[in-house]
Amino acid sequence: MTEYLIQYGYAFIFVVVLLESTGLPLPGESLIVAAGMLSGEGSFNIVAVLIAAFSGSIVGDNLGYLVGRRYGRKIVVRWGAHFGLGEKRFAMVEERFQTYGFAVVLVARFVIILRQLNGFVAGTMRMNWPVFLFYNCISAALWAGAYGLGAYVFGTAFRHVFAEVGTWPIILIAGGVCLVGIVGTYRFLFNDAEQESDEADEPTAPDSRG
Fold first, then answer.
1. CB-based contacts of 1: which residues, under 8 Å, 6+ apart?
2. Model confidence pLDDT, tens digit, residues 97-130
């Protein structure tokens, strides 16, 4: 990934983050971290990196919003069950967005699964677009700054760690964060459905009356 980053530069950042924001499983965060570290070495301009990441995330999320607004319900009905997101579960996702909508849009970019569903679900439930765009811009700016600027500022320290102990601690931490994000997101979105299913499966107590 780094070799493509060096070869294609800011356009590569923009495209990868855009595609990840529309739901594809691409390493957008890792790419921003790498670009931030290279910026610390002078290979890239950190401002341009942040602009590319911010722009790609905004365009990708809003493409997802447009697809969801126009085709979301049809897509869920036709294909959702194949990916474990049938109408019942998708209704729960919509309920979460209706209850915590603005907060979800703000934090979604930092959480796997929510990041992929963010724009699509917001469009499907026809969230007011200017409101979605406003909170989405805040979220994208915080996300780009956290990963890009963080790597830019602490890149030297990261390189020392890599040189001394290798990359396995970072991989382990990243894997743990992803796992927590996946489990936490699943419970946040679908916990009520699992409880209802368990209650429905419980045997009914026999009537003690004669």
1. 27, 30, 31, 34
2. 777 667 778 887 887 777 777 888 888 888 889 9
Q: Per the structure block, which two tokens stand in for 127?
A: 């969230």
Single-letter amino acid code for the residue at 35: A
Among 137, 21, 139, 128, smallest CA distance to 69 is for 128
User: For 10-41, how does the pLDDT look when each residue is reduced to its tens digit (9 = 90+)?
Assistant: 999 999 999 988 878 788 888 998 899 889 88
Mean pLDDT across 43-60: 95
What is the C-alpha separation between 158 and 139, in angstroms, rounded?
A: 25
DSSP secondary structure of 42-72: TSS-HHHHHHHHHHHHHHHHHHHHHHHHHHH
Encoded amino acid at 180, one letter: V
* pTM reported for the whole predicted model: 0.74
What residue type is 134 in one-letter code?
F
Cβ atoms 13, 49 nearer than 8 A: yes
Say which residue, 160 or 18, is predicted with more confidence: 18
Measured over the CA atoms of residue 45, residue 149, residue 57 and residue 80, the dihedral's sign is positive
* Contact between 39 and 52 (Cβ < 8 Å): no
Contact 143, 50 (CB under 8 A): no
Q: 12-47: string of b/e by CB count within 10 Å (b at 16+)?
A: bbbbbbbbbbbbeebebbbbbbbbbbbbbeeebebe
